[in-house]
Structure prediction request, 333 residues.
Amino acid sequence: MRNNIKKGLAVILMTALCGAILGGCTETSTEGNNESNVSVNSLVESSITEQSSTERGVFKIKADAAVSYLGPEGTYTEEAAKYFFKDTENFIPKKTVDEAIEEVKNGSADYAVIPQENTLGGAVINYVDALIRETDVYVVGEVIIPINQTLMGIEGAALADIKTVCSHVQGLTQSKTWRAANLSDAEEKEMDSTAAAASFVAESKDKTIAAVAAPGAAELYGLKVLAENVQISDTNKTRFYVLSNTKNEIGKRAVFIANCEADRIDDIIVDIHNSGFEMVTLHDRPDGTKLGSYNYVIETEADGISNEMVNKITSHSGVRFVGCFDLTEKTNN
Prediction:
């Protein structure tokens, strides 16, 4: 039996690389630690390319919503938040993801927008951990934006002057190849965010320090653009989760969080596949109890998610359903 499961797992993991964006789900009730009695109804597919600013699929955004996000102003998270919540003006920048989530938990914000994964840098592990820790917030949306990293310095600075490049760890990772070719002797300095790096450079008034940040940060902090598109690839993208303290009732994707030992995750994945889901992403983080025990964030999609499908996954001990949502993507065009 175990060998058959292992073989099935290999097939599923290959399938996960090429899943299509399909399906819809409605969650209306929960009961028990594993939420094994979730009620889910199939919905027709709806477009995510031509939508009003207050609707994503059939998810209705709360009017005049307050939205917290990882700040300061000028971050890619702010860009993602403003793209998703086009008709909202109440944006609340916070210093950390935990603080942004806390705004939702205490009712000061209706939604929080947090980064999850980048094409080049992979999962943003501390933000994945933040999602795992929270049992009272849910994923109600996902937005993907293109990342066009820009190198910027103070007025009067030139590329030849730069001795230190600062950015968020993702900005440093994404620009590593470009910097190796153009600023091979420059040191790295990790900052809390790309915008924090731009602010630091502006305040330093030092020609030898540059920041890798979003293009808009240059104007916001009064910096000079030294080089554009310093990321490794033009396909560089980051995806962000939109969180709420109430589960979204409708969506085309579903997220589960599983806490289990590594030798149990294959059984869960096999059931995900056999239930009719396709894998979108799978991130694992140690749960801190013992070697070989992890928390897994599992994003799935399907063409018509049903009650039975969700209940089969949450029937596994340690698995919880984190909500349904639709995908929204911004393009460079």
In short: The first helix runs from residue 2 to 15. DSSP finds ten helices and 18 strands in the chain. The first strand starts at residue 55 and ends at 56. The CA atoms of residues 165 and 188 lie 5 Å apart.
